[in-house]
From TrEMBL:
One Pfam family named in its UniProt record: Amidohydro_2
Recorded GO CC terms: cytosol
Organismal lineage: Eukaryota, Fungi, Dikarya, Ascomycota, Pezizomycotina
Keywords: Decarboxylase, Lyase
One GO biological process term: secondary metabolic process
Region feature (Disordered): 1-33, 382-402
Family recorded in the similarity comment: Belongs to the metallo-dependent hydrolases superfamily.
PANTHER family, per the entry: 2-AMINO-3-CARBOXYLMUCONATE-6-SEMIALDEHYDE DECARBOXYLASE, ISO-OROTATE DECARBOXYLASE (EUROFUNG)
Name of the protein: Uracil-5-carboxylate decarboxylase
Superkingdom of origin: Eukaryota
Domain Amidohydrolase-related: 114-435
GO molecular function (one): hydrolase activity
Amino acid sequence: MSSKNKKNPQKPSQEGPSNPTPPPGEQPTQPKANKPIIVDIHTHMYPPSYIDLLQSRTTIPLLRSFPGHPSPRLVLLPSELPLLSHPSPSHPPGRPLTESYTSLDAKIAFMDKHSISISVLSLANPWLDFFSTSPDTTTTTTTTSPDTINAAAIKINTEFELMCQTHPNRLYFFAVLPLHPTTTTNLTNLTEIVSSLTTSTFPHCRGIILGTNGLGLGLDDPALDPLFHLLQDLALPIFLHPHYGLPNQVFGPRAERGEYGHVLALALGFPMETAVAVGRMYLSGVFDRFPRLKIILAHGGGALPVLAGRVESCLRCDGFLYKMEKEGKGGRMERSMGEVLRSQVFLDAVVYSEVGLRAAIGAGGEGGVGRLMFGTDHPFFPPLGEGEGEGEGEGEGEGQWGSVVVNREAVDGVLGEGSEEAGMVLGGNAIRILNLREEEGGEES
Ligand code: 5CU
């Protein structure tokens, strides 16, 4: 990791017009030179009750054993669905359920191996979306009662809270919400659950993780307004994460037959999904209605940083929206997409390249460096075992994970190893933005 490329360092962000000065206790934390505090804000787990849920299911997401393969496999992605009905004996769909997905000891060992002081845990995709009407209708479960879904969310959040309590100062979490179509008629319950996240029951909760599905109609669904209102009022950020990617047909029949593994779905489908979700929120006026809502986008905002200008341009030239505005029927946003990105949006630094990282920093404007937070996406993208086919031998491996090193090197390469700016992205920003304060009697990393 070299400091030769100290290019384009930028100043810390003021958090936009809605948050001109950080409140007391949210002052920027400056890490010590050369030994930055590393905070991982993008790190997943499946706690025990979620594994039970996966085990009980017959369609994605599920856990399934395949003859000739020692460990059960986690089959999660819509792109894996065609392979589930005709699994190849040598390359069954999914990924082996290793300890990395389920064990807190494995998470701590991973953190220690990568000098990560603090992790903000979250349930991995697809959260509890399968209880809702999803874009992939085969994953719909309509018979589950709202009480059961609420109870599942509370149980999972409690499991995360307890994990955090066993490692004070090292672990926090983003909670999962029980979103389902009946939520709108059941808002009191949802309000109670969301409000509880800021009480002494969940002292380690720092926001919520959300997919792009919402209640089944996406995040521009006006039925979500009460939720956004509440999250804004409680100052609970959304960590927005993709899961559905793009429809399988986009990638062609060879991808549908599994010939390209997960590459297209994860590398190209996920980032487009994130960009589309935020574009829909923007055009529907979510950010105008909730200007204090904070949203953290996974994978450096996906395709959004490079496409935000194009969204603005298309909006400026759209005859239909122009006419709507003239007729006083809306159509225009109060702020440009760029302004929203510079004031309400934060990005993780899980982009795997200097080019991508520069775009993510640029999206935040002058204060872009102050809006970016390091992440690993653990336990996804592990090192693969030597000579093992299709990830069967994947695991912790001996050294640091290549997927993590590449992200760390991009930060050091763009901002300069040991620089103040690199320290902000690696940990200082997360400590400030997510208010990761020291607890008494906490453990050292
Ligand atoms: O490899 C994968 O399937 C995934 C996934 O499902 N979610 C994620 O965040 N990264 C990779």
